[in-house]
Specification:
Length: 833
C-alpha cells in the first residue's frame, strides 16, 4: 500500500476526509482501478452535507461502473486552504484517495447556485489544471458540470463556446448520467475532442464545449423509484442518520421569481407504493432513523396523509419542510396530521409583503388563507413559525402600510393565545433569475434604492415584538444577480478575479463586487440594455439550450405580473379541477390531466388521526434494550452520527429481517452525557441502545447472534448489557497509544494531569513498564484505579483502569494541538457498571 505523506495527519482534523479508507465507498485499490471518477462540490462539506446531488451522482456512477474508483471532493474550507497552500497540495483532491484531480479520468461537478461558479476557476488554478477546455489535452481528465444551477451557468462559457468545463449537462440526469459515464469510459482511448463530440451526440442534454450549438434540456417525464438515491457512501457528518427521499418532481405553481419552479416543470409524482418500497430500501442501505421528504412542496403529493402515517411505522422520525401555505390551509386534516406527527416548526413562504406584491410575484396565496392558517397554527402545539418574504424593490407606501397592519394583527393574535409560538420574519432581496418571467424586469444594483424599504419592514417587525432577519450581503447580492443574468462575457472576468485569489466561502470578499463592477463597466457591459427592463427579443445567454417552457410563455407571464394579474396555477383540488396555463412543459394530455385533476386523497375520517396519534404515542413509550458491542479501531474519533449510522446500516444489511422492527441503534456510553466531551475518540467495547417496536423479539434475535459469534463488518455483538444506565460506568480498562512525533512528553503531561486532580499515586518499575500504585483515598476519587505506562520505539503506551471521573479529552488537550483525539488511539475493554 502506498505510504501517505505526512501532511495527511492534518486532514484528520476535517470531517470530509474521515474515515480514511471508508469501507462504505466500496472502492477497489486506486492504482488497480480501470476508471476513476471524482465527484466535485463547489462548496465546503459543512454547507452541503445534507444535500443529495453528490450522493445521486455516486449512485449513478457506481451502478454504471461497479469496479470504478469513485471519490468525492469538496471546496476546501479556510483552514484546509491554508494547509494546502502551505504544503503545496492541489486544492482538488479526493477525500478518500487523497489523489489530485489530475490522476482521475473524469470529474463530475455539481453546481447548486450562481456564487459557487466563482470557485470553479479558483480550484482549477490551484490544482494546476489548464483553465479552458481548448487548453487541455488528453492527459487531463474530462470535466463535466451539471446541477440545479446549470441553466444559469453561462459565466463559465466564453462567447466563442470555449468553457472552463468540457461539457455541461442540462436537465434531469436520472439514468442518463450513468449512461454518459459508461460511454466516456468506453471511449477513453479516443482523442479528447472526438470523445466529447461522440458522447454529446449520443447523450441528450449534454453540451460539449467548442461552440454554442443547440441542445435540448432533458426532462424525466416518467419518474421511477429506481432512480432515487438509495445506495451511496456514509459520510462523517451530523446528517449521517438522516436520508432524503424525493417524493415528487417539479412544481405546479407559476411563481414569477422561482428559477427551480420553471426549470423543473412539469409537476410529477411518484406513486405511494413505490415511495414506501424505496423508503425501506434506503433505511436498510443507509441505516437511517430519520427520513426527510425531499420536494419543492411536499404537501402537494396526492397521498401525503397516508404517506406520513406509513413512514412513521418505519422510521423513528419523518421530517418535512417546504410546503405551500394555501394547500396546508385548504387540505382537510393536513395541518392536524403534521402536528400529530411531531412537526413543531413551520416554515411558510409568504413572499410578497402585500396582496399586490404577491400578485406581482404570482404567488397565488390569498390573504384570507394566510390569516386563517396563522390563526390555526397559533392555536396548535407548535414551537416556531418562520415566515419568508422577498423584497422586490417595487414596493410602494401602500404595500408597507398593509404589511404593518398585518404584523400588528399577528402580534395581537399571538398575544391572545395560551402558548405563544416564536415567530420569525425572514427577508431576502429578489434576484431576477433566467428562464423566469422576472428575467425581463429591470435590475436594482444601487444599494440606496433598497435601504429605506429594508428599514421600514425591519421597524414594522421589531416594534411589534417579532424577530427580523435579512439575508443581506450587498456584494454577494450584486454578484449573484450579475452572474444569473449576465452574458458569456463574464467568463474572462471571473477567471481574472480567481487568479487574484478571490473565492466564495460563506461570504464574498467585500471588494469582489467593486472590482467586478469596475471591470464590467469599463468593458461596457453594465449598460441600459442589461440593467433596464428587457423586451421579448432580448438575447439572453444560453439561448442555445432549448427548454420545455417557451420564452413566449415567460414573457406573457411577465406582462400579466406587471398588470398584477395572478391567474393561479394548474394543480386541481377537491373543490374544482385546475386550469392548464399552456406553459408547454407537459409531454401529453395524460400528463396534463394528472395535474389539473389532481386531488389530495383523504383517508377515513374516523380512523386516520386516531391511528396516527396512537402510533406516535406508542413510539414515545418504547424502551430500548442494551447490548455490548466491540467497535473496530477505525471508527474511533468519527462523529456519533456516523458511528450510529454505520452500526445501524450494517445490522440491517446483514439481517434484513430487522428493517421493519428496529427503529434506532445509538451508542449510549461515550457519546451521551456526562461522557460525551470526555471520551471523544475510543474504540473497543461500548454499549448500544436498540429501540424496536417488538423489543422481546429483538432481544431473542440478538442473543442468537451472540451465540453464533457473528462478526459484522466494523463491530462485533458481545452480549446483552443487563442493568445498564446510559452514560454510567464504574470501571473500565483503557489502552492508549500516542505517537511520539505528535505527542511530546506524554508521561510528564499525564502525571501533571493527574496531579492537577489532586490524585495521590506512586510509580514503580516492572521491567520496561512503570506501574501505578494508589492508596485507598485515591481510589475514592474514581479517576484511576491502577495501570501501567511505557515507551516503545518513541511512542507512548498506557494500560489504565479508570473510573467515571477520568477525563481523556482534558488530558489530550494538554498537548495543545488541534483535535488531538483524532491522532490518539484509545481502546476500551472490561466495562463495569
Amino acid at each position: 500500500m502506498k505510504t501517505r505523506p505526512a501532511w495527511t495527519n492534518h486532514l484528520r482534523q476535517g470531517s470530509p476526509f474521515l474515515p480514511f479508507g471508508n469501507p462504505t465507498f466500496g472502492n477497489p485499490d486506486f492504482d488497480d482501478a480501470a476508471y476513476r471518477v471524482l465527484i466535485v462540490r463547489l462548496s465546503p462539506f459543512r454547507d452541503v452535507d445534507r444535500s443529495i446531488p453528490h450522493l445521486f451522482l455516486f449512485q449513478e456512477v457506481r451502478r454504471a461502473l461497479p469496479d470504478a474508483f469513485i471519490d468525492l471532493a469538496f471546496f476546501p474550507n479556510a483552514s484546509e486552504r491554508a494547509l494546502f497552500e502551505r504544503e503545496n497540495i492541489p486544492f482538488l483532491i479526493g477525500s478518500q484517495s487523497l489523489r489530485p484531480a489530475g490522476e482521475f479520468n473524469l470529474l463530475l461537478i455539481s453546481n447548486a447556485y450562481t456564487l459557487e461558479l466563482i470557485n470553479l476557476p479558483y480550484l482549477l488554478i490551484r490544482s494546476g489544471i489548464p483553465l479552458f477546455a481548448s487548453q487541455r489535452g488528453p492527459e487531463w481528465p474530462s470535466i463535466l458540470l451539471g446541477g440545479s444551477n446549470a441553466m444559469a451557468a453561462q459565466a463559465i462559457i466564453r462567447e466563442d463556446g470555449d468553457s472552463l468545463v468540457d461539457g455541461i449537462f442540462f436537465g434531469e440526469g436520472e439514468g442518463l448520467v450513468g449512461d454518459m459515464v459508461r460511454h466516456l469510459q468506453e471511449t477513453r482511448f479516443l482523442s479528447l475532442c472526438l470523445q466529447k463530440n461522440l458522447v454529446s451526440s449520443q447523450m441528450p442534454g449534454l453540451w460539449a464545449a467548442g461552440s454554442l450549438h443547440s441542445v435540448q434540456k432533458v426532462v424525466l417525464q416518467r419518474p421511477e423509484a429506481r432512480f432515487l438515491p438509495l445506495d451511496y457512501p456514509l459520510l462523517n457528518s451530523d446528517e449521517a442518520r438522516t436520508a432524503s427521499l424525493q417524493i415528487n418532481y417539479g412544481c405546479p405553481a407559476f411563481c414569477s421569481f422561482c428559477f427551480e419552479g420553471y426549470d423543473r416543470k412539469p409537476y410529477r409524482e411518484l406513486p405511494l407504493p413505490d415511495i414506501l418500497a424505496a423508503a425501506r430500501q434506503v433505511k436498510q442501505a443507509q441505516g437511517v432513523e430519520e427520513l426527510n421528504l425531499y420536494s419543492f412542496n411536499f404537501n402537494t403529493h396526492q397521498d401525503i396523509l397516508e404517506m406520513i402515517l406509513e413512514l412513521h411505522r418505519l422510521f423513528e422520525r419523518v421530517s418535512f419542510k417546504s410546503q405551500r401555505g394555501d394547500i396546508l390551509q385548504q387540505a382537510a386534516r393536513l395541518l392536524e396530521a403534521e402536528v400529530e406527527a411531531g412537526k413543531r416548526d413551520f416554515t411558510l413562504g409568504i413572499e410578497g409583503i402585500s396582496e399586490h406584491q404577491r400578485a406581482w410575484l404570482r404567488k397565488s396565496l390569498p390573504s384570507d388563507d394566510i390569516v386563517s392558517l396563522l390563526n390555526r397554527l397559533l392555536g396548535a402545539k407548535i414551537r416556531r413559525i418562520k415566515l419568508f418574504y422577498i423584497l422586490t424593490g417595487h414596493e410602494t407606501g401602500a404595500d408597507v402600510t398593509e404589511f404593518r397592519r398585518f404584523v400588528k394583527w399577528l402580534k395581537e393574535t399571538r398575544r391572545s393565545r395560551n402558548r405563544p409560538a416564536r415567530v420569525i420574519f425572514s427577508f431576502g432581496l429578489l434576484i431576477r433569475m433566467p428562464r423566469t418571467p422576472l428575467q425581463y424586469d429591470r435590475l436594482l444594483l444601487d444599494e440606496r434604492e433598497w435601504r429605506p424599504l429594508i428599514g421600514q419592514v425591519k421597524s414594522a417587525c421589531e416594534t411589534n415584538g417579532f424577530e427580523f432577519r435579512l439575508a443581506f450581503d450587498w456584494p454577494a447580492y450584486c454578484v449573484s444577480q450579475v452572474l444569473a443574468l449576465g452574458g458569456h462575457w463574464l467568463a474572462d472576468h471571473i477567471v481574472a478575479l480567481a487568479q487574484k485569489g478571490y473565492c466564495f466561502d460563506t461570504t464574498l470578499p467585500p471588494e469582489y463586487w467593486g472590482e467586478l463592477e469596475e471591470r464590467l463597466a469599463r468593458a461596457g457591459h453594465l449598460n441600459d440594455a442589461f440593467l433596464g427592463e428587457k423586451g421579448a427579443d432580448y438575447p439572453f445567454p444560453l439561448e442555445f439550450v432549448r427548454s420545455n417552457v417557451s420564452a413566449e410563455f415567460l414573457y406573457r407571464q411577465y406582462q400579466e405580473a406587471k398588470s398584477v394579474e395572478d391567474s393561479g396555477y394548474c394543480l386541481g383540488s377537491h373543490e374544482q379541477p385546475g386550469r392548464c396555463l399552456g406553459c408547454g412543459a407537459c409531454s401529453d394530455a395524460e400528463q396534463r390531466r394528472a395535474i389539473t385533476h389532481h386531488q389530495i386523497h383523504q383517508p377515513d375520517n374516523s380512523r386516520y388521526l386516531p391511528q396516527l396519534r396512537e402510533l406516535m404515542a406508542r413510539k414515545q413509550r418504547l424502551e430500548p434494550v442494551y447490548f455490548r458491542l466491540r467497535l473496530d479501531s477505525w471508527l474511533a474519533g468519527l462523529s456519533p452520527e456516523f458511528i450510529n449510522g454505520f452500526v445501524f446500516r450494517e445490522l440491517l444489511t446483514q439481517y434484513p429481517e430487522l428493517v421493519d422492527n428496529l427503529l434506532t441503534a445509538r451508542e449510549s456510553l461515550f457519546t451521551v452525557r456526562p461522557n460525551a466531551n470526555r471520551f471523544p475518540a475510543v474504540s473497543g467495547e461500548t454499549v448500544f441502545a436498540l429501540k424496536a417496536w417488538d423489543a422481546r423479539s429483538l432481544e431473542t434475535r440478538f442473543l442468537s447472534l451472540c451465540l453464533q459469534k457473528n462478526l459484522v463488518s466494523g463491530f462485533q455483538i458481545i452480549g446483552p448489557a443487563e442493568g445498564f444506565t446510559p452514560g454510567v460506568f464504574t470501571k473500565l480498562r483503557l489502552d492508549m497509544h500516542l505517537p511520539g512525533d505528535l505527542f511530546p512528553e506524554p508521561r510528564a503531561r499525564l502525571e501533571q494531569h493527574l496531579r492537577s486532580a489532586y490524585l495521590p499515586y506512586s510509580l514503580r518499575r516492572e521491567g520496561e513498564q512503570l506501574c501505578f500504585d494508589l492508596p485507598k483515598k485515591a481510589l475514592k476519587k474514581k479517576i484511576l484505579f491502577g495501570g501501567s505506562i511505557e515507551t516503545r520505539d518513541g511512542d507512548f503506551f498506557a494500560r489504565l483502569e479508570i473510573g467515571p471521573k477520568f477525563d481523556l479529552a482534558a488530558f489530550l488537550r494538554t498537548f495543545e494541538r488541534p483535535n488531538p483525539f483524532r491522532h490518539a488511539q484509545a481502546h476500551v475493554s472490561g466495562i463495569e457498571w
